[in-house]
Design a protein that fits this description.
The chain is an alpha+beta fold and 195 residues long. The chain has 4 helices and 7 strands. Helix 1 packs parallel to helix 3. It starts with a strand and ends with a helix.
Protein backbone atom coordinates (compact mmCIF):
# COMPACT_ATOMS: atom_id res chain seq x y z
CA UNK A 1 0.00 0.00 0.00
CA UNK A 2 1.50 3.32 -1.07
CA UNK A 3 -0.13 5.41 1.67
CA UNK A 4 0.87 4.30 5.17
CA UNK A 5 -2.34 3.20 6.91
CA UNK A 6 -2.25 3.42 10.70
CA UNK A 7 -5.71 1.96 11.18
CA UNK A 8 -9.25 1.68 9.86
CA UNK A 9 -12.24 2.97 11.82
CA UNK A 10 -15.89 2.06 11.40
CA UNK A 11 -19.11 3.73 12.50
CA UNK A 12 -22.50 2.07 12.03
CA UNK A 13 -26.04 2.96 13.08
CA UNK A 14 -29.45 1.47 12.40
CA UNK A 15 -32.42 3.82 12.53
CA UNK A 16 -35.66 2.17 13.67
CA UNK A 17 -37.75 5.11 14.93
CA UNK A 18 -37.57 8.78 13.93
CA UNK A 19 -39.83 11.54 15.24
CA UNK A 20 -41.66 8.99 17.36
CA UNK A 21 -42.74 7.05 14.26
CA UNK A 22 -41.46 3.57 13.45
CA UNK A 23 -39.86 3.00 10.03
CA UNK A 24 -41.28 0.32 7.76
CA UNK A 25 -37.71 -0.90 7.23
CA UNK A 26 -34.70 0.17 9.34
CA UNK A 27 -32.07 2.34 7.60
CA UNK A 28 -28.41 1.48 8.08
CA UNK A 29 -25.78 4.19 7.84
CA UNK A 30 -22.12 3.20 7.73
CA UNK A 31 -18.86 5.12 7.72
CA UNK A 32 -15.47 3.55 7.01
CA UNK A 33 -12.33 5.65 7.49
CA UNK A 34 -8.66 5.03 6.83
CA UNK A 35 -6.22 7.01 8.94
CA UNK A 36 -3.12 7.55 6.83
CA UNK A 37 0.18 9.33 7.22
CA UNK A 38 0.08 12.58 5.25
CA UNK A 39 2.87 12.19 2.67
CA UNK A 40 3.09 15.97 2.19
CA UNK A 41 3.08 17.03 5.86
CA UNK A 42 6.04 19.04 7.11
CA UNK A 43 7.55 19.34 3.61
CA UNK A 44 6.67 22.97 3.06
CA UNK A 45 4.60 23.95 0.06
CA UNK A 46 4.57 21.07 -2.47
CA UNK A 47 3.60 22.36 -5.91
CA UNK A 48 2.92 19.02 -7.63
CA UNK A 49 0.77 16.58 -5.63
CA UNK A 50 0.18 14.29 -8.60
CA UNK A 51 2.94 11.70 -8.00
CA UNK A 52 1.40 10.68 -4.66
CA UNK A 53 -2.14 10.83 -6.10
CA UNK A 54 -1.20 8.53 -8.96
CA UNK A 55 0.70 6.17 -6.70
CA UNK A 56 -1.85 5.78 -3.90
CA UNK A 57 -5.36 7.19 -4.47
CA UNK A 58 -6.66 4.19 -6.39
CA UNK A 59 -5.42 1.70 -3.77
CA UNK A 60 -7.01 3.81 -1.05
CA UNK A 61 -10.37 3.88 -2.82
CA UNK A 62 -10.24 0.14 -3.40
CA UNK A 63 -9.39 -0.58 0.24
CA UNK A 64 -12.15 1.52 1.79
CA UNK A 65 -14.80 0.41 -0.71
CA UNK A 66 -13.98 -3.24 -0.09
CA UNK A 67 -14.43 -2.78 3.68
CA UNK A 68 -17.68 -0.90 3.16
CA UNK A 69 -19.11 -3.66 0.97
CA UNK A 70 -17.99 -6.33 3.46
CA UNK A 71 -20.17 -4.60 6.05
CA UNK A 72 -23.24 -4.01 3.87
CA UNK A 73 -23.19 -7.07 1.60
CA UNK A 74 -23.27 -5.49 -1.84
CA UNK A 75 -23.43 -2.22 -3.73
CA UNK A 76 -27.11 -2.91 -4.46
CA UNK A 77 -27.91 -2.30 -0.77
CA UNK A 78 -26.52 1.24 -0.90
CA UNK A 79 -28.86 4.07 -1.92
CA UNK A 80 -26.92 7.13 -0.73
CA UNK A 81 -23.18 7.73 -0.67
CA UNK A 82 -20.52 10.33 0.06
CA UNK A 83 -16.90 10.97 1.02
CA UNK A 84 -14.83 13.06 3.40
CA UNK A 85 -11.25 13.97 4.22
CA UNK A 86 -9.94 15.57 7.41
CA UNK A 87 -6.34 16.79 7.49
CA UNK A 88 -4.28 17.24 10.63
CA UNK A 89 -2.68 20.56 11.52
CA UNK A 90 0.65 19.86 9.78
CA UNK A 91 -1.06 19.55 6.41
CA UNK A 92 -3.15 21.56 4.00
CA UNK A 93 -6.82 20.95 3.20
CA UNK A 94 -5.56 20.44 -0.35
CA UNK A 95 -3.74 17.31 0.84
CA UNK A 96 -7.01 15.65 1.84
CA UNK A 97 -8.61 16.86 -1.37
CA UNK A 98 -5.75 15.31 -3.33
CA UNK A 99 -6.70 11.86 -2.05
CA UNK A 100 -10.50 12.01 -2.41
CA UNK A 101 -11.06 14.39 -5.34
CA UNK A 102 -9.70 12.20 -8.07
CA UNK A 103 -11.43 9.64 -10.25
CA UNK A 104 -8.66 7.25 -9.26
CA UNK A 105 -10.25 7.21 -5.78
CA UNK A 106 -13.94 7.87 -6.41
CA UNK A 107 -14.52 5.57 -9.37
CA UNK A 108 -14.02 2.53 -7.16
CA UNK A 109 -17.07 3.56 -5.17
CA UNK A 110 -19.16 4.70 -8.13
CA UNK A 111 -18.48 1.45 -9.98
CA UNK A 112 -19.15 -0.74 -6.93
CA UNK A 113 -22.63 0.75 -6.43
CA UNK A 114 -23.38 1.39 -10.14
CA UNK A 115 -23.83 5.10 -9.36
CA UNK A 116 -24.46 7.93 -11.78
CA UNK A 117 -24.44 10.87 -9.32
CA UNK A 118 -21.24 12.53 -8.20
CA UNK A 119 -20.02 11.81 -4.67
CA UNK A 120 -20.96 14.58 -2.27
CA UNK A 121 -18.11 15.52 0.04
CA UNK A 122 -16.50 17.52 2.79
CA UNK A 123 -12.83 18.30 3.28
CA UNK A 124 -11.46 20.20 6.22
CA UNK A 125 -8.72 20.49 8.82
CA UNK A 126 -9.29 19.05 12.27
CA UNK A 127 -7.72 17.82 15.50
CA UNK A 128 -7.95 14.34 17.05
CA UNK A 129 -11.54 13.52 17.94
CA UNK A 130 -13.05 16.23 15.74
CA UNK A 131 -16.39 15.70 14.09
CA UNK A 132 -16.14 13.99 10.73
CA UNK A 133 -19.18 14.69 8.56
CA UNK A 134 -19.88 12.64 5.45
CA UNK A 135 -22.69 14.23 3.45
CA UNK A 136 -24.54 11.86 1.17
CA UNK A 137 -26.92 11.96 -1.75
CA UNK A 138 -28.82 9.44 -3.84
CA UNK A 139 -26.43 7.45 -6.01
CA UNK A 140 -28.62 7.94 -9.11
CA UNK A 141 -30.52 11.18 -8.50
CA UNK A 142 -28.64 14.25 -7.27
CA UNK A 143 -31.93 16.14 -6.94
CA UNK A 144 -33.65 13.67 -4.60
CA UNK A 145 -33.76 15.60 -1.32
CA UNK A 146 -34.98 12.50 0.49
CA UNK A 147 -31.39 11.25 0.36
CA UNK A 148 -29.61 14.44 1.44
CA UNK A 149 -28.29 13.04 4.71
CA UNK A 150 -25.13 13.31 6.75
CA UNK A 151 -23.34 10.65 8.72
CA UNK A 152 -21.31 12.02 11.60
CA UNK A 153 -18.54 10.16 13.37
CA UNK A 154 -15.36 10.86 15.28
CA UNK A 155 -12.12 9.01 15.96
CA UNK A 156 -10.66 9.89 19.37
CA UNK A 157 -7.01 9.78 18.27
CA UNK A 158 -7.27 10.97 14.68
CA UNK A 159 -6.20 12.83 12.75
CA UNK A 160 -2.81 13.40 14.35
CA UNK A 161 -1.07 16.50 13.05
CA UNK A 162 0.69 14.56 10.28
CA UNK A 163 -2.30 12.41 9.27
CA UNK A 164 -5.30 12.45 6.97
CA UNK A 165 -8.60 10.74 7.70
CA UNK A 166 -10.06 9.47 4.43
CA UNK A 167 -13.67 8.30 4.79
CA UNK A 168 -16.58 6.95 2.77
CA UNK A 169 -20.19 6.89 3.90
CA UNK A 170 -23.13 4.78 2.80
CA UNK A 171 -26.80 4.52 3.64
CA UNK A 172 -29.35 1.86 2.75
CA UNK A 173 -32.04 4.53 2.51
CA UNK A 174 -32.69 8.23 2.64
CA UNK A 175 -33.89 10.22 5.62
CA UNK A 176 -36.57 8.60 7.72
CA UNK A 177 -40.05 9.84 6.72
CA UNK A 178 -38.98 12.41 4.06
CA UNK A 179 -41.74 14.89 3.30
CA UNK A 180 -40.26 18.13 1.95
CA UNK A 181 -40.42 17.28 -1.75
CA UNK A 182 -37.51 17.64 -4.12
CA UNK A 183 -35.92 20.26 -6.34
CA UNK A 184 -37.96 19.13 -9.34
CA UNK A 185 -41.18 19.91 -7.48
CA UNK A 186 -39.75 23.33 -6.52
CA UNK A 187 -38.94 24.12 -10.16
CA UNK A 188 -42.51 23.29 -11.23
CA UNK A 189 -44.01 25.35 -8.42
CA UNK A 190 -41.76 28.35 -9.09
CA UNK A 191 -42.53 28.22 -12.81
CA UNK A 192 -46.27 28.09 -12.06
CA UNK A 193 -45.96 31.04 -9.67
CA UNK A 194 -43.90 33.19 -12.04
CA UNK A 195 -45.72 36.29 -13.36
Amino acid sequence: MHFEVRKLAYYREEIWIEGGKKLDKPITMLGVAAIIKNPWADKGFVEDLSPEIKAGASEMGELIVSRLLEQLGSGDEIEAYGKSAVVGSAGEIEHGSAVIHTLRFGNHYRDAVAATSYLSFTNKRGAPGCSIQIPMMHKHDAGARSHYITLEMHIPDAPASNEIVVALGASTGGRAHPRIGDRYQDVKELEAEAP
